[in-house]
């Protein structure tokens, strides 16, 4: 479902008039400038979620081997829940040392006490009503961090088209109102420029840690709606 809203929040107009200062010179063009804004709200149809497996061990090799085993189990479990249009990809891998905490003011060099391996995968899921199930499956398979979750639109172009149409109607309505108030008539469009902010999502979940892996309750998700906005700046010639 998409909801189209018209905005007439801002209005800037300028009337440029002049008389020819030199004989034979053409008069300057008289214009007004207006701003129209449009917004389309729609139910999201794409969820993007990142899962990570973090493992800690005294030796780097042990951390890497354990991480590889758990990451393979995670990938296999996720693939079983994905459909043809869904995607899974590795977005980050790191191996970092863990240093011993030294007392403040100590001049001793830091000592390595272990290693942390991290493997992160990104999933694009079209059946957004199954996001909670996917999170439960991932944590059961070994994921101990959900680093990012957002709801968005798979086909943004069509919604942006509708938002621009709304912005165009709003801009024209403003121009007509200004022209009427000034006692002039609109002629042609001299120029038009657009801008479209990023998709506005109702919620974005970040950095859910290891406690999630220990929870056995089903994970609820309420994606709400997202919106696509567009702004149109139009310069009209007047007579």
What does this structure look like?
The structure is a single chain. The protein is an alpha+beta fold and 239 residues long. Helix 1 packs antiparallel against helix 2. About 12% of the residues have low confidence. It has a five-stranded antiparallel beta sheet with strand order 4-5-3-6-8. A four-stranded antiparallel beta sheet has the order 1-2-9-7. It folds into two domains: 92 residues, no CATH class; 98 residues, 2-Layer Sandwich (Alpha-Beta Plaits), CATH 3.30.70. The protein contains four helices and nine strands. 27% of the residues lie in helices and 39% in strands. The radius of gyration is 28 Å and the shape is elongated.
What would the keywords be for this entry?
2 domains, 5-stranded antiparallel sheet, 4-stranded antiparallel sheet, Alpha-Beta Plaits, alpha+beta, 9 strands, 39% strand, 239 residues
Q: What is the beta-strand fraction?
A: 35-45%
Q: CATH superfamily membership of the largest domain, which one?
A: Protein of unknown function (DUF541), domain 2
SS-based class: alpha+beta
Looking at the structure, the CATH topology of the largest domain is Alpha-Beta Plaits
Instruction: Return residue spans where pLDDT drops below 50 for at least 5 consecutive residues.
Output: 8-23, 203-208, 210-215
Cα radius of gyration in angstroms: 28 Å
Spatial strand order of the main sheet: 4-5-3-6-8
* Principal-axes shape call: elongated
Q: What number is the mean pLDDT?
A: 83
Q: What is the number of strand segments?
A: 9
Number of helices: 4
End-to-end gap: 42 Å
Q: Into how many domains do the coordinates divide?
A: 2
CATH architecture group name of the largest domain: 2-Layer Sandwich
